[in-house]
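Exercise 7. Predict the joint structure of the components listed below.
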Amino acid sequence: MTGRPPGEPRRAAYLFILPAFLVYALFLLYPIGRAVQLSLYDWDGLSLGTWAGLDNYVEIVADEGLRAAFWHALVLIGFFCVLPLGIGLLLAAILNHSKVRGLGFFRTVVFLPQVVAMVVVAVAWRRVYAPDGTLNDVLSAIGLDGLTRGWLGDYAFALPAVGVIGTWFETGLVTVLLLAGMSRIPGELYEAARLDGAGAVREFFAVTLPAVRGEIAVALTLTVIAALRTFDLVYMTTRGGPGDSTSVPAYEVYSRAFEEGQVGSAAAIGVTITVVIFTISFAINRFADRGSS
Amino acid sequence: MAASIPRTLLAISAGLLTLAACAPGTSAPPASNSAQPTPASVRTDPAAMGKITLTVWDQEVRGGQAAQMKALNTAFQAKYPNITINRVSRSFDDLNTTLRLALSGNEPPDVVQANNGRPQMGAFVKAGQLRPLDPYAKAYGWSERFPQSVLQYVSYSPDGKDFGQGSLYGLPQVGEVVGILYNKDKLTKLGLQPPKTWADFEAALAKAKSGGEVPIQLGNLDKWPGVHVLGTVQGQHVPADQIRALGFGRKGATWNTPENTKTAQQLADWVGKGYFNKGFNGQGYDPSWQAFGKGEGVFLIGGSWLIADLAKTMGAKLGFMLPPGSPPVATGGTGLPFSVTSKSANPDAAAAYIDFITNAEAMKVLAENGLMPVSDTQSQQVAEGPVKDMFTAFGTASQENGLVPYLDYATPTFGDTLGAALQDLLADKKSPQEFLDALEKDYKSFVDSNG
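Solution:
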């Protein structure tokens, strides 16, 4: 009415975001702030907490068990992100390239694990890995008796065994994401590549891979978060065992806050996980953005 | 512009932070602690208490547990129509995670079922959230109803630091005892009798092994089942008071003794001799006892809670005994005790309710619903068989003061420490000495800070 461009004065814009921001602040910012505050106290959840400064954070670095837990989470990133990405790229490229019949069917099948609750997944895999479980039965059937073991109770194999469940779980998500990206690549690009004499492999690296950079970033972000905050899987399969060989930070948060009455320390671990997740996701997206511009 | 939004966000979050910047938790324990009722001032006739609603939080959600609770609540309300029970029942895990918050609120339930150990009951006592029940114990004669070996599990010093003695903070309904389950058919086939001595038991294990059987069925994936095996072996080598001191996390007790070394060594030897099933650290607890039910394994070291289910599949083949020895020493305890909260407005009615669900009549109801009553255990009418074996075992152990606490009661973190270290010991990743060192480290740091 006064001839100003829409949205002016700029301050009015804040009014529009205010309701959403209030909800966001109430349910997200406040709890996070509170968690950060709790992490600076030594508190059992009941009696008066005592100021601990950065002690809880120092403990994360100094405590061998907690360091190991964070290390295990990094190993899980390999299983939750790197492997699914490799398999997903391969699967999606094949599915997209060969224009297989019944693509919808395959897409559904690959995606299926995502639909099942993690707790159910964990219970099912626990059976597979049991000393008298499916995996050992199969190994015995093909004459590999020497390899049979209680997989989740084996010091060398428990963490990879948990990781493989993650790979199985995340591959579908990654594949479907990548498929969506690949289906948007114009056919002319492939034609041009072929005219220039590129083989399937060359074509993949020159055309397909750069085109799905954005999807890769999304897939990596989602799976890294899943890997770092893994709790249900470990809780249901190994409870951090054997020994402490599959302990993960999120499980430590649970056991400290709810079982051992060390709420301050639990909050400190939670905050640390958040920071690590934030840093890694930020790096991934920075990397993807730079590539696309 | 673009930079100012994050700045605003930061400012606002900083504001929220300062708003919240006071220490978490409450400093003063509720006032009721100072106003201790004396036995004379305690009222024990619920009918004369006027119209009252009691809120009770329990975790008796499964089969027989739920049935007995319902029956007893109905009977209580029929007898005292002026009292209404508002029952809130949650599963064990749910109760575990919500009880802390509920108790620190302004209107906690009147009666709650809290786990005996330090992380729960101990922490609540320390925070002044549970009411000491000593005056009621005198008025109702609870110390005659329950043997000392049962009452120790619900006793704390008023500051919550000393577990196993002091004031009474709750009463349990059911008992638990860890013993040796055996498959009678397998024993007969091997030409063996149920062992009368520990040497007999070891000989039976050797014979079972050479006979091609799995001597002891164990599923230790969940970490804690092995603790029961450890406790049972420990009972043979370590004097009961020492185990009790260790289990209750008392000052002066130590894991570094020749007796405990012997215990750890024996376990390691058993693994070396192949007395456990293959891959036991990777076997789940439930699949493991189910396998025992299907005839895999001659012995199973486990708790009385397994009997009802196993008796269904094994029938008369199933036997249950206390670890051999006289007097017997067995890991055991009680179901979750019922406690009265400090802030309850009707402590007399709450105590009367607890008295009602743990009296001789209630014990009968428990037995009828297939549960093991914590008192009058041996006088219950049950048919010959594993359930009777179990009642006899618990009755004997509790009357002869042979119950020793679960070892993970010791410190808030001991369950994790012990479970992990034990998996290490059984997998030969830790020597007996390294195993004991790991336990001692946790134990000592707790005892030192507990004062």
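Discussion. Chain B touches chain A through 49 residues (CB under 8 Å).
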